Amino acid sequence: MNTFAIATLGCKVNTYESESYVQGLTALDFHEVDFKGCADVYIINTCAVTNTAASKSRQKINQAKRNNPNAVICVVGCFVQTSHKPEELGADILIGSSQKAKLPEIIKEVLDGKEVNSLVEDIQHFTHFETLTVDQFQHKTRAFLKIQDGCNQYCSYCIIPFARGRERSMPLIEVVENAKKLVEHGHREIVLTGIHTGRYGHDLGIELIDLLKELVRIEQLQRIRISSIEVTELSDELIEFIADNKKIARHLHIPIQSGSDEILKAMNRPYSIALFEEKVKEIRSKIPNISISSDIIMGFPQESEEQFKETMDTVEKVQFSFLHVFPFSKRDGTRAEKLSGHLSNQIKKERCSAVSFLSKKHYNNYIHTFIGQTVEVLFEYEKDGYYYGHTSEYVLTKVKSDKDITNQVYSVIIDKVEEGSLVGSLGGIS
């Protein structure tokens, strides 16, 4: 039996795509082994969002070659698509951002002696959504479902539109069929993911809310989570629909990227801070205690001390439940790379630390509001006598239980906060 190992870098979309490769190869009687060991085939599912991510992709390729110099090396994804000379990566199989569904069969053909050329196409003219089927996520209660690919936004710091191409969506009926398969295999929560998830359906003449209306009808599906959505995509109709449907998670991840209007303009982000704040206020008025998290980039080129303080003021005013804070990282091939006024790593580090400190304070304040409240928790694993899971608001929660409650949703009465997690008493099954 041939063995394979896979290394996945980057986003949730890559995680989904890697799971598809695993299932495809398993169906062809391949056996998965640890990437650190010896395998017949190594798959590196690459990321190119920053120069550092591209460098890590190269490191994984070199690691695979050291592990087994005779192995078949397959490099796939964004780093391949954006490389000027992908043939210099030293791989036996190169696949960019299209024809990924062929990967398992191509690997088998190469092992059988067939020579395969590089499959790297001009992704900018690719309009068809390539479905990569995943029936089940092994050892996970929560399942990802990739419903969309590509991006038309072209933020000045981002290479992804060049790596993934234009927006394209999985047909609605296919999404529903895939969701039903995941539920049949025991998944109670599905995370809808994509490169620009909130733009789902725009190429099909429909919108994300049309898909949500179909998914909430799946009986055994207890929770639907939207991985990320832009503030400009949160229409009044969509907010009302989320408010009226408990199946949709009480958590929205809405990237803000900066708290300064001037920096947002330089980033080519299509909203103002006033619009963002007003939309968050509207959401919270209709969905009390909802978790609103965000991404933020600190130290964008030419970011002044005053603009940094504006971002701190915005974070203080909005009070996100939590933030993912990143230092600006120059990416070759983007407009931001060519800007003057790049800041030192020390300044970026200091500003990230300041925003992260504020974020931790807000998160602590937010989770304390749950004390005495009853929440719904999907339990995921057991450790040291406690069962752990996440609330609809995506807050980690633990309880004691004499019975196995993994992959089940229970009501939990929250007693206290302990080391950043909620601790409660088990109620009834939901």
TrEMBL record:
Q: Which domain of life is it from?
A: Bacteria
Enzyme superclass (EC): transferase
Upper lineage is: Bacteria, Bacillati, Bacillota, Erysipelotrichia, Erysipelotrichales
Keyword annotations of the record: 4Fe-4S, Iron, Iron-sulfur, Metal-binding, S-adenosyl-L-methionine, Transferase
The residue ranges of the Radical SAM core domain are 137-365
Q: Which NCBIfam families match?
A: MiaB-like-C, MiaB/RimO family radical SAM methylthiotransferase
Family annotation (Pfam families): Radical_SAM, UPF0004
Q: Where is the signal peptide?
A: none
InterPro entries assigned: Elp3/MiaA/NifB-like_rSAM, Methylthiotransferase, Methylthiotransferase_CS, Methylthiotransferase_N, Methylthiotransferase_N_sf, MiaB-like_bact, rSAM, rSAM_horseshoe
**Needs which cofactor?**
[4Fe-4S] cluster
Enzyme Commission number(s) from the entry: 2.8.4.5
Q: What name is this protein filed under? A: Threonylcarbamoyladenosine tRNA methylthiotransferase MtaB
UniProt xrefs under PROSITE patterns = MTTASE_N, MTTASE_RADICAL, RADICAL_SAM
Domain MTTase N-terminal residue range list? 2-112
A Gene Ontology molecular function term for this protein is: tRNA (N(6)-L-threonylcarbamoyladenosine(37)-C(2))-methylthiotransferase activity
